[in-house]
Specification:
The protein has about 120 residues and is an all-beta fold. About 0% of the residues lie in helices and about 55% in strands. It contains no helices and 11 strands. The strands form 2 sheets. Strands 2, 4, 5, 6, 9, 10 and 11 form a 7-stranded mixed β-sheet that branches. Strands 1-3-8-7 form a 4-stranded antiparallel β-sheet, with no helix packed on it.
Length: about 120
């Protein structure tokens, strides 16, 4: 059974940084693309960033481009999302995601709160 567990969220002041991590188990991680999404209160879940299996292709939402960096460590079965220059509008629950055989797997999320 595939499981994803996010960690690293918290409260940070505007302009600060946070590093989120996602631990993947139950399946070989090195063959999977990984995505990060977020959901703010009262809003739909939105795409934040993605990385392919090797880490050679990365994509970002326009809202985070230049401030967030997605990375992965296949040896540790983990993916990370580094957020810098955080803004209050980055406040949300952040989820990591993988898709296997057409099925989406999600973690339970980690809360990021950016105070102004």
């Amino acid at each position: 059974q595939v499981q994803l567990v996010e960690s690293g969220g918290g409260l940070v002041q505007a302009g600060g940084s946070l590093r989120l991590s996602c631990a993947v188990s139950g399946r070989s991680f090195s063959s999977l693309a990984m995505n990060w999404f977020r959901q703010a209160p009262g809003k739909e879940r939105e795409f934040v960033a993605s990385i392919n299996w090797s880490g050679s292709i990365r994509n970002y939402a326009n809202s985070v481009k230049g401030r967030f960096t997605i990375s992965r460590d296949n040896a540790r079965n983990m993916g990370d999302l580094q957020g810098n220059s955080l803004k209050p509008e980055d406040t949300a629950v952040y989820y990591c995601n993988v898709k296997i055989d057409g099925i989406n797997y999600w973690g339970k999320g980690t809360q990021v709160t950016v105070s102004s």
